[in-house]
Amino acid sequence: MFWRLLFAFVLFAVLGAYGVLVILHFWNVTSLPRLILPIGLGLLAGIPAAFLTRRFVRPIRELTEGAQRLAEGEYGHRIHGGVWGESRSLARTFNSMSMRLEAQFHQLEADRHQLRTLLGGMVEGVVALGPDQRILFANEAAGRLLDFNPQTAVGRPIWEVTRLPRIQEVLSKAMNETEARREELDWKGPTSRQLAIYVASLPGDPAPGAVLVLHDMTDLRRLERLRQDFVANVSHELKTPLSVIKACIEALIDGAVDDLEARRPFLDQIADQGERLHALILDLISLARIESGEEVLEFQPLRLDESVADCLDRHQPLAEAKRLNLKAEPPSISSAVWADEEALSQILDNLVDNAVKYTPEGGFVCVRWLASGSQVQIEVEDSGVGIPERDLPRIFERFYRVDKARSRELGGTGLGLAIVKHLVQIMKGSVKAASQQGKGTIFTVTLPAAHDG
Predict the structure, then answer these.
(1) Which of 361, 360, 351 is nearest to 447 (CA)?
(2) pLDDT tens, residue by residue, 336-385
(3) Whether pLDDT at 31 is above 60
(4) 359: DSSP letter
(5) Which residue of 77, 121, 263, 384 is most buried, as measured by CB atoms within 10 A?
(6) What's the total number of domains in the chain?
(7) CATH number, domain at 176?
(8) What's the pLDDT band for 298 if we cut at 50, 70, 90?
């Protein structure tokens, strides 16, 4: 454009010079050669023509360069516009457009970053897919649930990333439907999971893509099973003593009440089963209060020698009846724990009661404790029947029994160890068990030590 404008200006100057020659010829001025004047005028006109041309072209070049820089993503770039009124007006329009583009793209980038942050912080997995089921976006939860790296998965087909045929089936169906689809499936990865997947296709015909949302249902299903097992176990535990009581009452009504010798066993059975029901209800109430957080504990320094002695005194009659050696082995230096007095008594009672019940006649039950730094370890050891290794991980579950028939015969509710676990956890401690079948069991409770002052 510069050279075209320069040529035009020079041409106009030359034509003007020839016009001057015509006028001079008309006036019979012939003293100057015919070619010198136009050539000289042309050269003299070239200087202002070049200057004017450059001034005229500069805003256009600046505008062209600015548009190119905007196209390359340099939003907010501004131009001056030169000295011409029209070019400066065009420059103001360009600069206003550039500023709006900069603000809009900054807002889009902020929204995009916010959206990625929100999606990245979600517990649910989110995967955005293109029309060919290639991954456009996947958050960390999706990678964790389906065991892939979200960063390296972008651009790859989802069937190549997950290799789970059910997901492709649901996606294919959802891409041809207007309503979202929901399915549940078992993910057999490094960690087995139960997943609920929601797939919604994007608007369009055909659908330009889909959004896949994954929700981990493993814990929910486990809690549902625990609830079902809990209801079933409570029903069974209530049904058994009530059936015995009902049978005894029917026998008494049928005439046993008039026989002094016959009615005594029935009354004893009613009393025993009533006590069993009472213990079960108390344990249920205690466990419910602990799990709901309503159990208010009052922490204070407690001397273990006193707490253990009180516990052994309460269980001494039953131990003597079974000819068990019930003893304590205190350390050389007295220890104290930072705990709730009633909770500590309940923990010791449940552990010692189990040890006494499941230890055959002539055995022993020993309670020992030792301070170690900021913690105190309490051990309850017995020479009882022991616990099979396969059952050890589950003994702290509610109503879990290793030997169901014997447990009910001994009058256990199946909640004692669950209560122990919850109370210990509330007091910032831990509990574990080690056992050899036929050789006995050791329960170890770790609680915070009480420091002086």
Answers:
(1) 351
(2) 899 988 889 989 998 998 899 888 888 999 999 988 888 999 999 999 88
(3) no
(4) S
(5) 384
(6) 4
(7) 3.30.450.20
(8) confident
Q: How many CB atoms lie within 10 A of CB 158?
A: 24
CA dist 301 to 90, 191, 346, Å? 83, 43, 16
| C-alpha dihedral (400, 406, 410, 415), degrees to nearest 10 | 0
Sequence-ordered list of residues with C-beta below 8 angstroms from that of 50, at least 6 positions apart, any chain: 6, 9
325-329/299-303 β-pairing:
unpaired
Contacts of 330 (CB under 8 A, 6+ apart): 304, 305, 308, 368, 369
Give me the amino acid identity at 303: R
Alpha-carbon gap, residue 300 to 302, rounded angstroms: 6
Q: Count H helices and E strands in the chain, helices first.
A: 13, 12
What tens digit of pLDDT does each residue of 36-93 get?
555 555 555 556 656 655 666 666 677 677 777 777 777 667 767 665 566 667 777 7
Reported as type and span, the H/E element at residue 192 is strand 192-201
Query: How many whole angstroms separate alpha carbon 290 and alpha carbon 416?
Result: 13
Residue type, 77: H
Whether residues 306 and 438 share a domain: the answer is yes
